[in-house]
Amino acid sequence: MTKDNHRQQFPALANKAYFNYGGQGPLPEPALEAIYEAYKRVQLGGPFSGEVGAWVVQEAMLTRRAIASELTVPPETIALTEDVTVGCNIALWGIDWKAGDHLLLSDCEHPGIVASVMELQRRFNIEVSICPLAATLNEGDPVAVIADNLRPNTRLLVISHILWNTGQVLPLTEIVKVCHQTGVKVLVDAAQSVGVLPLNLIEAGVDFYAFTGHKWWCGPEGLGGLYVSAEALADLHPVFIGWRGIVTDANAKVLGWKSGSQRYEIATSAYPLYGGLRSAIALQHEWGTIEERYAEICRLSKYLWERLSELPDVECLRKSAPEAGLVSFRLTNGMPHNKLVNLLEKQGIMVRTILNPDCVRACVHYFTTEAEIDKLVEGILRQVS
Asked: pTM of the entire structure?
């Protein structure tokens, strides 16, 4: 499928230059149709009928399989959630914390995760320290930095696979290996990596991997997931609990948890979103393999990085070409970054600000075009010159 034909299936791309995939991807027409048809089917069948109930179970199973295939893991290791934050909270709160336990957090995590960790610290009197990974963007070894910050009482490391603010791709397999040598589990915020990187979580050895469907997969908002490794499952207790995660007998007596990660699922969800996400994932495969898509993302982000590096009063955070689709830059002429973002949006160019570090972030996907990038660069040049 050509890129032009592929782009025509995304209504949101028709009248704008879109660079906010790291915040939310545009929903393709086939996914919109799948969601609509699913809602209609539920209503025609009866929302709480036996037929629709069986359909819901099938939809959930098919969705776990589709996700598992993308992550190269067994379907039973996937719990369907609403988003990354819910997945991270399942892992954070499901650990049996004791006073004095240590949690290591990077200095590039999303505020929603930082706030959750702060509440864990308050409630359970655990120790929390910050690992300085931001400084390794252009030099230094993040694996060595993490190793230096582990303690004998460390139980969990919380990091992102791709840092949401700078776009740095962390060497996950090597980080997990260092942590597991001392019995430390690893929770990964995968908001910016799922749908971008070729993934094999079994090989990576990661314990918990929380992701969403509405960013780089361009699926519907409100549907994501959590991978829990078979080894980590036994020690991660459900916190929010509902009928989808438990086993009962013929008299509705609770017997225990579902056997796999489904135990972390709670209750009624927007089930028609399942087909929408599967449709969005399938559409990406029509363009190319994950390896081909990732290579195109890197090619386009390098092109953007090179164009931005040529501009006066613009400084890219990275000193070398990006390793994924996030390109962060700052203005050196004193113009507030939010002013630039607002001016660009009036021209139909969508980027966003990041507060820490203070910068602007532009995201390119595999179906971004050079013409869109040129439009962004020209739009910035008009404002800074």
From this structure: 0.97
Residue with tokens 């195109």: 296
Distance CA 36, CA 33 (A): 5
Of the candidates 214, 166, 167, the one whose C-alpha atom is nearest the C-alpha of residue 194 is: 214
Which residue from 13, 112, 357 is spatially nearest to 3, judged by alpha carbons?
13
User: Is 20 within 8 Å of 350 (Cβ atoms)?
Assistant: yes
How is 88-152 classified by DSSP, letter by letter? Answer: HHHHHHHS---TT-EEEEETT--HHHHHHHHHHHHHH--EEEEE--GGGSSSS-HHHHHHHH--T
* pLDDT in the model for residue 37: 98
CA atoms within 13 Å, Cβ hemisphere of 78: 24
Report whether 194 contacts 244 (CB < 8 A).
Answer: no
Inter-residue contact 324 to 192 (CB < 8 Å): yes
- Using only the alpha carbons of the chain, give its radius of gyration: 22
Q: Which residue has the tokens 């040529």?
A: 310
Tokens 């070409």 belong to residue:
321
173-205 confidence digits (pLDDT tens): 999 999 999 999 999 999 999 999 999 999 999
What pLDDT score was predicted for residue 186?
Answer: 98
pLDDT in tens, 82-94: 999 999 999 999 9
Residues ≥6 apart with Cβ < 8 Å to 288: 296, 366
Q: How far apart are CA 269 and CA 277, in angstroms?
A: 14
Cα–Cα distance for residue pair 206/187, rounded to 1 Å: 7
> Which residues pair with residue 113 across a beta bridge?
none
Report whether 21 contacts 216 (CB < 8 A): yes
The helix/strand/coil state of 340 is helix
Q: In this structure, are strands 349-350 and 17-18 parallel, antiparallel, or unpaired?
A: parallel
